[in-house]
Amino acid sequence: MPRKTLKQRREAQKSNSDSRVNDIVKNLIGGEDPDDLMIKILEALPQTEIIPESGSYYTFIYSPKTPNIEYDQHPLVAVTDIFSWGFRGFNYHWEEMRQYTWNEVVGSMHVVRRSELEDMRTIPYQRFRLNS
User: How far apart, in whole angstroms, are the C-alpha atoms of residue 19 and residue 32?
Assistant: First the structure.
């Protein structure tokens, strides 16, 4: 997914000034470490849930158990389905549906308001890794 230009980020920050992550977007200079950005995001989004709700948005830390798969350690998802084993959702970093198991979610799921989604998509905090 192509990153947004500085102009696009500034336009997004004007329209989302009530966003809890607006300061993160406003201070992006490029080249930030995804782990550092994730820490800032988790601090800015203190509302958490253990079990997500279908139709809601979340970000969290994920560490899969399946070997040799590529994954996003910092997913931003719109949850679509809840199951006994975990949940399925649209990952905005991958731009596709992905599945997540309960035991591999590290800590809690941080609630992202719908009004913050555009700002969250502007922050380059995705961390794609290969589970070995």
Answer: 20
The answer to whether residues 98 and 36 touch, using CB atoms and an 8 Å cutoff, is: no
Query: What's the pLDDT score for residue 18?
Result: 83
CATH class (in words) of the domain with range 6-130: mainly beta
The yes-or-no verdict on residue 117 having pLDDT over 60 is: yes
Rounded to whole angstroms, the Cα distance separating 105 from 92 reads 17
**Dihedral sign from CA coordinates of 18, 37, 54, 4:** positive
Which SS3 state, helix, strand or coil, does residue 97 take?
Answer: strand
User: Of 59, 131, 51, which is closest to residue 87 (Cα–Cα)?
Assistant: 51
Span 56-113, pLDDT tens digits:
999 999 999 989 999 999 999 999 999 999 999 999 999 999 999 999 999 999 999 9
Sequence-separated (6 or more) residues with CB below 8 Å from residue 39: none
DSSP 94: T
pLDDT at 2: 61
Q: What is the pLDDT of residue 4?
A: 64
Other C-beta atoms lying within 10 Å of the C-beta of residue 3: 11
For the chain, how long is the longest CA-to-CA vector?
43
